[in-house]
Structures are given as C-alpha cells and as structure tokens.
Amino acid sequence: MIAAVPPPAAPPRYTKKELIADQPTWCPGCGDFSILSVYFKLMEKLQVPHEKIISVAGIGCSSRFPYFVNAHGAHFLHGRAVAFATGIALTRPDLHVFVFGGDGDAFSIGGNHLDHAARKNIKMTYLIMDNEVYGLTKKQTSPTSPLGFKSKTDPTGAIDQPINPMKKVIAAGATFVARTHSHLPNHVMEIMEKAMAHDGFSVIECLSECTEFYPGAFDAANPRKGGRFELVPANHDVTDELAAYRLACAPFPGYFGVFYQVQRPTKNALEAKLIADAQATTGGAGPRELLKQTFQRFQ
Amino acid sequence: MNENKNIAVLPAAGGQPNGMPLEDVVIRLAGNSQDGIQAIGGFLARLAGRTDKEVMTFMTIPATISGGPSIFQVRLGTGEVLSPGDDVDLLVAFYQHSYRDHIGTLREGGILLYDTDHVKPDPHGQRYRAIGVPITSRTIEAIGGTARDKGKNMFVLGLLARMYDLDVPKLEAMLRAYYKAKGDDVIRNVLLAFHAGYGYNLSQTFVFRPARIAGRGGQVVTDGNQAIAYGALAAGVRFGAAYPITPWSSIMEILRAELPKYGGIFVQAEDEIAAVSMACGASYAGRVALTGTSGPGMSLKSEAIGWAIMAEIPLVVVDVQRGGPATGLPTMVEQSDLNIARYGSHGDAPRIVIAPSSVGDCFYTAMEAVNLARQYSVPVIVLSDQALATRVEAWTMPDFDQCVQELPLDLHPRGPDFKPYENRADGIAQHAPPGTPMRDGKYPIVTGLEHDESGHPATRPANHAMMVAKRRQKLKVLESKLPPPELHGPPEGEVLLISWGSIRGVVQEAVDRARANGERVSAAHLRYLMPLQPGLKDVMARFNHIFVVELNDEGLYGYGQLAGILRASFCDPRIRGINKTDGLTFKVREILEIMREKIKAPPAAAAAAGAAEVRQ
Hints:
The structure holds 2 protein chains of 2 kinds. By secondary structure, chain A is an alpha/beta fold. Chain A is 34% helix and 15% strand. Chain A is built from 10 helices and 8 strands. Chain A has helices at residues 16-19, 32-46, 81-91, 103-109, 111-120, 165-172, 185-197, 241-248, 267-281, 287-297, and strands at residues 53-57, 72-75, 96-102, 124-130, 176-181, 201-207, 230-231, 255-261. The longest helix of chain A has 15 residues, at 32-46. The relative contact order of chain A is 0.12. By secondary structure, chain B is of the alpha/beta class. Chain B is built from 20 helices and 23 strands. Chain B has an 8-stranded mixed sheet, with helices on both faces. Chain B has a 5-stranded mixed sheet with strand order 12-13-15-14-21, sandwiched between helices. Strand 2 (72-75) of chain A pairs parallel with strand 17 (445-447) of chain B.
C-alpha cells in the first residue's frame, strides 16, 4: 500500500490534470468515462506519485483505459491482464497495481485467472467494468448478458445462463468484493479508495453502461432514471461469507457496496516470508556463495 | 558393438583372464521403477565426476507408469564420451521381462548379468556370455530376512564396483553422505548390501585404462534440467512462473525451492497461459523473467510470446521438447518444436531461438538466453529436449566468481527524448519500467497493439511497415555478431552432417567413426537457430552431400524442420535430411546407415526424383 501523505497546505504536488492523457476513444455517454475521472481524483487525493501509478488492462473497450492515463501502463492480451499484473505485483512491492477490464476479460476468456488470483490473494485492485455486452466487437453476447438479450450472436435472445459476478469472486476466495455503478461517481470513489486500501486481492464490479449496444441496461439501479440504488444494508457483516453470498443472490439490479472483506495473508506476504525463512537458513549468502555451495554437492 | 571401441573381445565361454583392460563400457540396468536402479546410475555418475580416470555420460529412458518396467543406461569411459552408446556391453536383468525386453540390445559377445532368483535366460543364447548371481536372495541374506526386495540396487552397485574395479572408498563415502538423513540403520543396510555385492566372487572383471585426458578435475555431475535451472539463477533470474509438464517440471521444482534463497519467487501458475503472462508482467516490471514448458505448453504460450515480441519485452522461454503433436510422447525425445519455437505466433514475430548441446551447455545457454533477452528486448526460446533433460554428465565446474551476475532494477529518471520504441539503427527498444520518473511528464505505455515510437496505438500504414522492420532488424544485428557454426572434422570433404541441439555429440561420434573408416565426413553444429549463424553457406559449399540430422519427421519432401529452414534460406537443393521419429536418441550406427544409403543417390538426382514424386 502506498501511504497517503497528509493534506498539503500548498497546491497538491501531483495533480489530476497532469494525469490526463489522450482523449478517450469511448462513445459519448459511455459509463467508463466516470470511472476514469474517479481514478484521476483518487490518485490526486492520495497524492500517489505519477511514476508509481501502474494501470494494466486486457482487451475490450474498457481495456483502453491505460492509454487515457498519463502514467505507466500496459495493454496486455485478452483475458490475461490479471496474470500479467500478478507478475508486476509480486516483483514490485513498491507499486499498487490497478487492473481494468470488462466482463469478457474477467468472466469469459480470463475467468480462470480471476479465480486463481483471488484464491492466492495477490495484492492488486481489479476493477471490472461490466456492461453485459461485447461492445468493442459491436454487440455480441457477453457472459453477463441476461437471458433473452438479443445480440448479433444471439439474434433470438441469449439462452445461456449468465454468470453472477459477485458469487463467482466470493466463491473463488477474493478477500475484498464490492459492487458499484458508474452513474454514481461518489460511490465509485468510495469503493475504489477502500479497495486500494485493502491488503489483498480486491475486486470491484462496476456496472458501466454501453450506450451504443446496451443502452439503459442499468437504469433500474439509476435514481436519475427512476431506478433504485440499493446500498448494502448497514447491518451486513462483511466478514460473513454466507451473508455476502445471499446479497449476491438478490435479483437484478441487486445491492451496491462492499459485500465481503476479510484479512488473509497475501501471496506477496507469504512469498516474502518464504524468502526471509530461506535466507535465514543460508545466513543471507549471496548468489555466488549459494551456487558454489550447491555445486560442491554436485561434485 | 561400437566399431571404434578399443576393448578386448571376449571369448564365448570359459577360462576368462580377469582384470581385462577397457576404455569404455555401456551398462544397461533393467528392472522395475521401485528397484532404485536410477540410484545406481546416480552413484556411478557422481563417482565418475569425482575420479580422474573416468568421464561418462548416461541417459535414462523413464518408466511410463509408476511401478512399471524401468531401464537406465550408463556409459563409463576414460576417453571423451559423446553419446550414450549404441549397443550394450553389460545388461543387468532384474526380472524375466527385463531380460526378455532388453536382451536384443546386448552386443555380440557382451555380458548378461542376471538375478537367478527371477530370471531364466534362454539356454541356447550363444551370442553373449551369461553370469547368474542370486541377487535377491543374497541381498536378503546380507541385510536380514525382512528386507524383501530393498537393497538389491546396492548389491548390484557392489557387483559393478567389483566388476569394473571402481573406487570403493569413494563410493562408500558417497553412500554414507547420501543416506545420512535416513539414519544409521539405513546406512548400515546399504553398506551391508553393497559389500555383499562387492564381495561376490565374479568370474569376470575389468580394469579401466588410465585416462587420456589430463588435468581434469573440478567436475560436477548434473542432469540437463538442473543445469538450466542453476544457469538461470546464475544469470540473475529472480522471477519465474510455469505450469507442471513432463519433462520440464524438474526445472520449476528446483527454481521453486531455490529462488527464495536468492530473494526471488517462482509461481506455479494456474495454466501455461497464466505462467507466460506472469513472466511478461515481471519482465515488464524491470527484470528478465523466465517461464518454461514442454511441447503442448508452447502451443498455449504462443500468443503471449507474440505479445512480448510486439511490446519488445525481454523474456526467457525454456521448451524441453518431447514427442508431439498434441499430448504426444511425454517421456520420449523429439526435436520437433523447432518450427513452433521459430514461428509459433500469429503475425510476423521474430524472436531468438538457441539450443544447448550438452548438459554443461544447458547452464551456459540459460545464462546466454537471459543476456540476449535483455540486450535485444525480445523473447528467447531455449530448445532443450527430454534426452538432455534427463541425461547426466560430468562437466567442468563453472567459474562462479566470473559468471554470476545480478540484474539490477533500472529506475533512473528518463529524459525528455525518451521513446520506448525509437526507430534506432539497431532496432532495440528502450524500456522504462513502472516506477521510473519521466522528466517531461510523458509516460510510456507498453502494448500489444501496433504502436508508434512513444508506444501509442498507431495504424498508419507506413508506421506498421517501419515497426515490423525494426523488430526484424534487431535479429539482423544479432546475426552479424554470431560466431560461425562449430565444425567437427576438416572444413571440406564429401559429406557434411549438420546438427542442432542435444544430438551434437552423437553426430560428432558418427563423424569420427566414418573418418576412421576412410569416409570424408565432417559435421557442423548450429547453436543459434534464429537468427542462423553466418558462414554456413560457405561451409556447405565445400561438401558434395549435405544432411541435416534431426529427431523429427522427414516431412513430405524428404527433409526435416531445420533442413527445410536451411533450404528456404540458402536455396540449396542438396540439403537433405537424416531423420527419425521413434522417440529415442540417435545411435551412431543409425546416422551412418542412413547417410551411406542416401549418398548412393547423388544429391541433384535425389532432388530431381523428389520433385518428380511431388508432381505425381
């Protein structure tokens, strides 16, 4: 975790203005814009030095994210961003990695990686912009498209049971599981800040409307469209896995907020312990010495 | 029998003079996998490494299932040992099936040493000499009644020590050290069995001639996979990720256990794709990372390897080849991943491919792969194979004071002119890992999309052409710095054998044997398979027949994977193949037989005939 510095009296050293890179190529009205601007605000609020910001993405509309942030970024393969970010997170404890992707990346082609990063509790934040449709490729069915959704690959309506993102990540063992909605940027901000502060694998499903191919998908949870934004009940115990699972079972549009949060040692910490223990037994010998000792045994 | 072997011919039976001199012996141990015959080989190998009179190599052909038949072949010698040997001089048969399945490999006049408690050899077998020893009952007698089959391997090791006059005090010290952790009772039983074998009154013994190679010493004994793992550690690799697959797995097992001591991490990933993706991420984060696999995993990793080529990220991918395609032959050898190593990604995706040729070379190849990856910001594929992975050899102790290196994280602030993909003359990318401050406040994006010099996506036609050329140009720069292929034999003659990878030794032995027979044969060995070493064309020009020897299919037109690449590169129709696909290493004899058969037809006529065949 990158420590937040106390609020400065002078103007902030790291401004969100400097973080703005290329004009995003998203369609007008896309929900992803609000997530991008919340990310800028969060980085400014926490005064994260810009060279320490690292945004990783897979493939999809939302995965264009790193190009729009003027900080270090990597645009990896479809579905593999979490695995790629694992390589960064484990070797660079000085950085907090943010992974951005869509429902295709997270729940379809990359579903396996999400499960394993969750169970290993690798320290990073994975923000999944769920629009329930494949937008970049112009309207095919996604793993979260509801039954009956008409797309170019399901012209008569989707027939396959969609994934329930919250259930999946809770079952996989993620230690921070939350849900938000891009139409409510203040809520997105609150959740992202909590996720970043969490020492472990934090997953956020952020409903993010595709105005082009699935307009109005999330109106039911948008108060400005007459919907109801139902927060996770105040008495919900975030450490109760079964209670979290019950929240996840609520019919669409469901609840918003932190469903589940527990502390479990991260892989980062466990690997660091393995290293400390191993180096204690070798007396901190350097690579030359270690190799010489090993090869003496091979004589 | 090996034609050039200077060993006295044994009379068929009776009246053996003992202590017969020899230079070289091939021993095959055949039993079941629980008999511990691999341990016998391991001790013989380590003994060879610790004595100045024997160099040796041996190979295993592993069991297909646990508890099933297992064999193990050792070649001990006092000269240079280049291959595991064609034919067996001594077959040790633990069971009837061991005898039945392997007696055919015993050379004319060789010795069958069998367990009289389990084996009844054909009484009419006249072509070899049979020595029966009650191995099982003598072992039980030595250790005590409840020992059952345990310890037979130690009894046999004792027999071999007697038969070949091996250094018993050194062997004993090794046994004590090896079994130390198992307690005094085990050591006592091990030594009882060993000495029971050593004390057995054998009717035939040999003495190795003194070594012709002077000044050996500082030898280490490892298998090829160990050499790769420690080579990577010496080169400064501190992060790796992989998925278990035979015969790659032992490299990741070593790295998982060793890396924490070096302050590093090895991740067992959820799948092959995750493994290469994690390695890409760690390399991007600033230090060269390693992944590895065998055939099927190469297919799965191909997309990410293409990403690293496009993003110009250094990466080391070890491919311990096995028989393919699909699941193929997990425990057998083939050199059939050359094409996927060179071309295995969509699009034009140039990368570096190098292949180690011996166990010791595995160590240095792993190191070189790391350095080439760093220097050229590109994935480097290391093509080892099952035979090399499990082969144990004695090789010279590396000079760790000289060769060990660290790969520091370079986060120095980059100036305003910094462009990660600047179109420089050498084509090499400049990386600024995350954490690097950028003086002009403009940060780089690393991407698999085609991009401009700053890393931003760019679809302009001229830009793509420029960037494709840039990625190719790096390899041209490397090519210009590579040494010419290594020659074995005179630089001109009748036949040139071209080899790559693990079969270098056996091809060189084939050259030696052919030349002893008056044939004008030489060999060229290629260590770098992409780019190719310069000068091969000039070498080929000085020979009439050119054969690429490789353990892969001869293909539709009579040549294998490297041969096809060489034909395409040099437009030389004289290039033909010596190939086989039985999942085993080449024997010297096999290479020479195919070579002699093929040179009966002149290369031009052969090419014409091939062309005619194609037309039909």
